[in-house]
Design goal:
Layout: E1 7-12, H1 33-45, E2 49-54, H2 58-68, E3 72-76, H3 87-97, H4 106-113, H5 115-124, E4 132-135, E5 151-155, E6 169-170, H6 173-187, E7 191-195, E8 200-207, E9 213-214, E10 218-222, H7 235-239, H8 241-247, E11 249-253, H9 261-275, E12 281-288, E13 294-301, H10 310-317, H11 322-331
């Protein structure tokens, strides 16, 4: 019988941790649901595993690798020193170790996390993207005439809807300047301002390296939001349970799609995944307008893996229960991602 691989689960923490720290109490909370779910899955799969929480000390990870000697690193690290900008750097470090690690590598993360760069690449390959402009931090704020209102404004490289609120939807130059200045001043990051696409918010989960599997499509529904109001995935719309309940905001499997749309979505999603050098698993955020036109909004390599989140829910509907999903992700681990 083949020996189960030794798996080191690496994740980020909100402060310094010790090499032998016990995270059992943290894993009982909602914020640590992904880590807890992965640990439980590895227990069910009977994989030997160890944990390493990383905040601002890469030496801790080096020590764990030397002591535990993992065959695979299950990478859940999204921040280093509290910044999501370093997610790609962690994967670059893992790549240098020559140990297979789960999920996307530094090239894919670099291309995906820069929302402007990903749109430039895909637009070049004739994948429909919104008109957009990049507004660098500490530079003059200017809206080109080609960018028509309404416009949607958000941080260029942040994730999890950070910096997105109802005020991100702007309809004139005064609102445009105010929102860009707000993000510049409060988050101190570059901004992307893009054409607002009215339509259905679709989440397409994909797993694989060369052979790709598109999982059942999820959709963000706005059941109580008035018809004439913008339907946008703000931070509150994603993470505030009371706000979601008030406005009837739900993540669910997509309802009926126009004829031919499902196949088109699958084909375009695979092409996006390949063009952005994604490996392992990812979730693509797309918009489908009333004319049946599909727009790329952004790509999320290594999306949230908690059992109740969209990716795992799509996998389960495709026949992969949670332990099977974790096993599949491990099987795709690549030292050259």
């Amino acid at each position: 019988m083949k020996k189960a691989p030794r798996v080191l689960i690496a994740f980020d923490t909100t402060g310094p941790s010790a090499p032998d720290q016990d995270f059992s109490e943290e894993f009982k909370t909602k914020d640590w649901q992904t880590e807890a779910n992965v640990v439980n899955a590895l227990k069910q799969l009977e994989y030997p595993y160890d944990l390493v929480g990383i905040y601002d000390d890469i030496e801790l990870l080096i020590q764990k690798i030397k002591l535990f000697k993992p065959d695979i690193i299950f990478n859940l690290v999204e921040h280093f020193k509290g910044s999501a900008q370093h997610e790609r750097d962690i994967t670059a470090f893992l790549k240098l170790q020559g140990i297979p690690f789960t999920g996307c590598g530094p090239t894919g993360i670099t291309l995906c996390k820069d929302k402007g760069l990903s749109k430039q690449i895909l637009g070049y390959h004739r994948i429909r993207v919104p008109q957009f402009v990049i507004l660098p931090y500490k530079k003059r704020i200017h809206r080109p005439k080609r960018l028509k209102f309404p416009v949607f404004i958000k941080p260029l490289s942040e994730e999890a809807s950070c910096g997105i609120s109802q005020s991100s939807f702007v309809e004139n130059d005064v609102q445009f300047r105010e929102r860009v200045e707000f993000i510049h001043n409060n988050l101190q990051v570059d901004v992307i301002a893009e054409e607002y696409i009215e339509g259905r918010e679709l989440y397409v989960s994909i797993i694989g390296n060369k052979r790709l599997q598109v999982l059942p499509i999820r959709e963000l529904k706005f059941l109580q939001v008035p018809e004439d109001e913008p339907k946008i995935a703000t931070y509150k719309a994603k993470w505030d349970d009371e706000y979601r309940k008030k406005w009837g905001i739900r993540n669910q499997f997509a309802g009926s799609l126009p004829n031919g749309s499902a196949k088109k979505i699958e084909k375009v999603s695979k092409k996006i995944y390949q063009l952005l050098s994604i490996r392992g698993y990812a979730r693509l955020d797309l918009r489908l307008n009333s004319q049946g036109e599909l727009y790329f909004i952004e790509a999320n390599p290594n999306p949230m893996l908690a059992a109740e989140e969209d990716f795992a829910q799509s996998a389960e509907k495709a026949g992969l229960d949670y332990p099977a999903l974790i096993q599949k992700i491990i099987s795709l681990a690549d030292p050259l991602a």
